[in-house]
Amino acid sequence: MPPNYSGRLKLSPKAGHEERALDLPEPDTGVFRIILRKCLLNQLDFSVILGFIPPGESQPILLRRYNGRSHQHTNKLEREATFYDFHIHTATERYQVHPAFKAEHYAEVTDRYVDFQGAFRCLSQDCGLVFPPGQANLFEG
Question: 10-24, 51-65, 90-104: which range is least confident on average?
Fold first, then answer.
């Protein structure tokens, strides 16, 4: 994470929710993008996302998405039962090559977080975010 990441991740109002994105360029390989989104009316409606934009592309592939408990989800290719819970989406090749779905459509229920801050903590741990010396995770505490 860059030294000034906390200021660059402060959420801004945008049509019924707050949102912010932070690009983390990787020389010669592309850009990682952290996207934070939170509904203003429902504290359980949020997403904490890590995406990757390959060189020459403009739209990120969403690698991981930590969602709140605000909607139903079904893993359609697996023909699993629909669930309504906190869940983590993970990009998979199986969904990436299927024309009807996005790469990150597959999701699993989780009990590792119950709020937006906890979802960011999980993304940080799972994806190996490294914070600048003396600057803890923005959402710790």
Answer: 90-104
